[in-house]
Specification:
The protein has a single domain (2-136), classed as Orthogonal Bundle (Cytochrome p450), CATH 1.10.630.10. It is built from 3 helices and 8 strands; from the N terminus they run αββββααββββ. It has helices at residues 2-7, 39-43, 87-104, and strands spanning 13-17, 22-24, 27-29, 34-38, 105-108, 116-117, 124-125, 132-136. A two-stranded antiparallel ribbon has the order 1-4. It is elongated. The two termini are 26 Å apart. The mean pLDDT is 89. Belongs to the cytochrome P450 family. Keywords: Heme, Iron, Metal-binding, Oxidoreductase. This is Cytochrome P450.
C-alpha cells in the first residue's frame, strides 16, 4: 500500500499559508503567503529514494518512514503540521479493497490506456479502469 501511495498520491500537492515570516535556503516566506508542498515531487526525489520512478513494493519492508521523506498525504506530524489525520483510515481502506480484488472476485482487465490524466484532481487513468466478466469467487 505504501508504494502505491508514494507513486500515486491522491493529490500531487497541498496548499498552506505561512504562519510567520522566515527565510529558508535564501528564499523569503512572508506571513500570509500561500505555499504548496509538492507531495509527488518529495515522494519521488532521488535524494531520498533509490530508483524513485520504479514501482518497488519491497522498498518499505525495512525502511524507516519519516514525516518528511514519505508524504503521500501531507508532511510533518498529524497533530502539529500539514499531514492528513485520516491517513491511517485511507491505508486500512486500501488494504480492504486490495484484499477484495485479490481474494473475493475474479475479473478480466482488457487492454486500456492507464496513463494518468494529471490535469484532473485526483488524477485518473485515461480509460478509467475497465474490468470485464466480474464474478464472485466461489
Amino acid at each position: 500500500m505504501q508504494e502505491v501511495r508514494r507513486l500515486y498520491p491522491f493529490f500531487p500537492a497541498v496548499a498552506a499559508r505561512v504562519k510567520s515570516d522566515f527565510e529558508w535556503r535564501g528564499y523569503r516566506f512572508s506571513k500570509g503567503y500561500r505555499v504548496l508542498l509538492d507531495l509527488y515531487g518529495t515522494n519521488t526525489d532521488a535524494r531520498s529514494w533509490d530508483a524513485p520512478q520504479e514501482f518497488r513494493p519491497e522498498r518499505f519492508h525495512d525502511r524507516e518512514v519519516t514525516p518528511y521523506d514519505f508524504i503521500p498525504q501531507g508532511g510533518g506530524d498529524h497533530h502539529r503540521n500539514h499531514r492528513c489525520p485520516g491517513e491511517w483510515i485511507a491505508i486500512s481502506q486500501m488494504k480492504a479493497f486490495c484484499s477484495f480484488f485479490v481474494n473475493a472476485i475474479d475479473y478480466e482487465v482488457p487492454d486500456q490506456d492507464l496513463d494518468l490524466e494529471t490535469e484532473e484532481l485526483p488524477p485518473m487513468p485515461k480509460s478509467r479502469f475497465i474490468m470485464r466478466n466480474v464474478r464472485r469467487r466461489q
